[in-house]
Design brief:
Largest sheet: 6 strands, parallel
Helix content: 25-40%
Number of helices: 8
Amino acid sequence: MRIIDMHCDTISELLKKKRAGEEVSLLQNTGHVDLVRMQKSGYLLQNFALFVNMGTCENPWKEVCELHQLYEEELCENSDMIAPVYCYQDIAENESAGKMSAMLTVEEGGVCGGELEKLRELYDMGVRMLTLTWNHPNELGYPNKQEGGLTEVGRAFVAEMEKLGMIVDVSHLSDTGIYDVLSVAKKPFVASHSNAREICASARNLSDDMIRRLAQAGGCMGA
């Protein structure tokens, strides 16, 4: 069985440790994910999130750019083991070459400040999936535990993401926001790291109805 994992915060953790003066790398570290363990486990694809905490970060765009630079450096240093993907065909080609695949994502749509041009910049940087919110409201919508759904800007972002070929990710989004995405999305989308609320009553998890409707829309849910 080949493993596909839709979310990890490894790049953000590596940057945090590097800033603290630690010598760490994507190849091997003490976090949850590194390339050595991925290879031993039979990984096909790992989504690497550039996570930005809007509650503590003074310049979210600068932060996401620094995270992107670290991601690029780590993939370059380990190009014998893993390669980036920008479309499905890249995954197949990397597998044929004996390499694992890395998909770049952003966790926190607020890094764009509501600007579609910055969304397009993220796409040009290689980002192929965007989590609309994290735990703070932003220009796109509201997170779980808060009232409110997608804003008009959020709806415009969903439309532009579908036009670009960037996957919409509703993990952390409010219940109303998820149903808003279900109503406006024309392409499949995902909940990259959510589980079943019926089993674990976390606000980030999805109700049975959401899970069914996500599947009916052609999307999927990661743990």
